[in-house]
Design brief:
Length: 423
Amino acid sequence: MRILVLGSGAREHALILALRSEDAEHAIFAAPGNAGIASDAHLVTLDPNDPVAVAEFSGAENIDLVIVGPEAPLVAGVADALRTRGIPVFGPGRAAAQLEGSKAFAKRIMDAAAVPTGRAIRAQNTAEVAAALDQLGAPYVVKADGLAAGKGVLVTDDRTAALAHAESYLPDAPVLVEEFLDGPEVSLFFLSDGDAVLPLSPAQDYKRLRDGDAGPNTGGMGAYSPLPWLAERFGGEAEFVDLVTREIAEPVIRQLDAEGTPFIGLLYAGLILTDAGVKVIEFNARFGDPETQVVLPRLVDPLSELLLAAASGNLEERPRPAFAEATAVTVVLASDGYPEAPQTGRRIRGVDEAAAVEGVHIAHAATAPDGAGFLATGGRVLSVVALGTTFREARSRAYEAIGLLELEGGQYRTDIAARVVED
Ligand code: AMP
Ligand code: GLY
């Protein structure tokens, strides 16, 4: 198959590694990719956010399937441009991508589909924010109503800080003040062809920068999959996945279809398991990063077939994807200063040594070539991914490998997947 992957992060590298391992014969193109992806795909100089450029390249190169990694090309209408030309694309059009791009849109769809989520109040000025904070009470949750790559949220007990955060967006952008949802967080991905829905295996993401969930929110500092502790509460992973499919994913996909904005692509449900049931904290319209790095290596079915079936409206004929028993852990290496002001241009050493640890591979996020080595070019630099038969094994492999990497000022969490090996 001739496949074009849009994006340049560790998620895109993970997608490409999964495609490579299923079939070495695939011709894989990445736009723009990164220095690690360059070993596994042909890099294309193309603006992934330019619908016309992506559609023209895909037509000229006889691309069989376009996979959109990040949200920006979706919101820019890249999938619409491809579909207009009859090129199969895994990713929703601009209208359905509003599920991620506008939190107000997502809340409206959830209300219409009777999907459980926290209460939210949209506020346009300081007085409205203050009233909403007092109505919903502490802890306060304040977020921008637009794309913020997971960094636009403040969760705090400090009312003054909550107001100041809202004022940093106002008056240009409205803000949402939300009910605080308390409980463990789970990411669950669904493939959809606009009608049928197939769940993948759940993962847990670590959003805060530092150990013990301290520090600012980030794009995600690590993840693991599967989630053995779901069994205590739901009887097993399958029961949990069934529940979320039935009560959350299917109603949302039906609602979007009924409104004439069918969702073809990856529905990412960010969930909180509250005492009052599973509630949606957010939807994304694309694979999660770094969850993809731990979900895809466990996927047994060929990824390209699943994504092409979704892109072509043929998901209904397929059984639910199967996942290996293996455990997967990923730890993200981030630059000094991430997330506020990442230092870039520093040399990374030890990548080959880290990748040589048993069960480990490296997904590149923000790297550029530097002679035979690499330079860090952004906030999240590399995802170290380890597989094992137990979490103890996968986790110790991941930390052995990340310990071999050298990046001046580099930061990583030391508690990823710690809770699943405490015994
Ligand atoms: P979001 O930008 O909506 O993806 O939120 C990013 C992160 O902030 C989530 O993954 C949660 O960890 C936290 N968060 C957002 N909204 C809430 C909420 N209503 N209650 C508790 N935590 C939240
Ligand atoms: N890991 C969170 C996200 O991809 O949005």
